[in-house]
Amino acid sequence: MSSFEKDNPQPLPLRRGRESLPAGRQGRGWIKKVRLVMAFLDVKDLVKDFGGVVANNHVSFQIDQDAIIGLIGPNGAGKTTLFNCIVGYHKPNSGKVIFKGKEITGFKPFMTNREGIGRTFQIMKVTTGMTVMENVMVGAFCRTENLNLAKVEAAAILGFMGLDSVKAYHLNELPIAAQKKIGLARALATQPELLMLDEVASGLNPKETEEMVGLLKKIHQEKKITLFLIEHVMEVVMPISERVIVLDGGEKIAE
């Protein structure tokens, strides 16, 4: 070893796994870029059956961050069951659900919500005895226990969605289109990174469907939320989806 080498020791290369990172890319920013290469949501070989009836049969797919992905198929194809396995309402018999590089298979719904997954329901689960504001605050309470902060978050979401004028109404005083938007607002109040929408346009007339498509585009563009939606209404799926996954008989038959 020369006297120069003794006086100027070189740092050992950083290692990630078995390989050294490329020269000049050992900083935190490079590691962050490496992490972003992985799929945002990765469903691997997922199986779910109910007493011998197979609802999801070895389903695999990936979703990238900032994408809009549609999930279509006939009634009974296993679409809602797949959603329920991802968010934790059902525990898969086998397979894996990986979100942002972390396995969340079998997590409870409140746990997947904390990880950044929000959802709406095919049959809207809203409380008719509460006002619109109070319903949206329920979502905000997933992120804070502070009443004032929950009110601020709910008010901001209602303003974003153009629902300020109905915030004091009760749900049973409003038409189905407004109730759908309020269910969506409550999911947004949980501050999701991935928003899973189960037939958010079902029961809407053509004008209401067009408005819902515009709202979903606004959420994606301005909130930077990844959208994954089950739909039978092709007027919703086709204009906004970057990719469509097709289920039939519990199996993925096309993508």
Describe what this molecule looks like in 3D.
This protein has helices spanning 3-7, 28-36, 79-87, 109-115, 132-140, 147-160, 176-188, 206-223, 234-240, and strands at 15-16, 19-20, 41-50, 53-63, 68-72, 94-99, 102-103, 117-119, 194-198, 226-230, 243-248, 251-254. Strand 1 and strand 2 form a beta hairpin. The radius of gyration is 22 Å and the shape is globular. By secondary structure, the protein is of the alpha/beta class.
Features:
9 helices, alpha/beta, Rossmann fold, 255 residues, 12 strands, four-stranded antiparallel β-sheet, globular
Rough outline: globular
CATH topology of the domain at 36-116 and 230-254: Rossmann fold
| Helix/sheet category | alpha/beta
Mind describing the biggest β-sheet? 6 strands, mixed
Unreliable stretches (pLDDT < 50, length at least 5) are 2-6, 9-36
- CATH superfamily annotation of the domain at 36-116 and 230-254: P-loop containing nucleotide triphosphate hydrolases
Counted by DSSP, the helix tally is 9
What fraction strand?
Answer: 15-25%
Query: What is the ordering of alpha helices and beta strands?
Result: HEEHEEEHEEHEHHHEHEHEE
Q: How many DSSP E strands?
A: 12
Helix percent band = 25-40%
Strands across the major sheet, in which order? 8-9-10-5-11-12
Level-1 CATH class name of the domain at 36-116 and 230-254: Alpha Beta
Question: Mind telling me the C-alpha Rg?
Answer: 22 Å
Mean pLDDT, to the nearest integer, reads 86
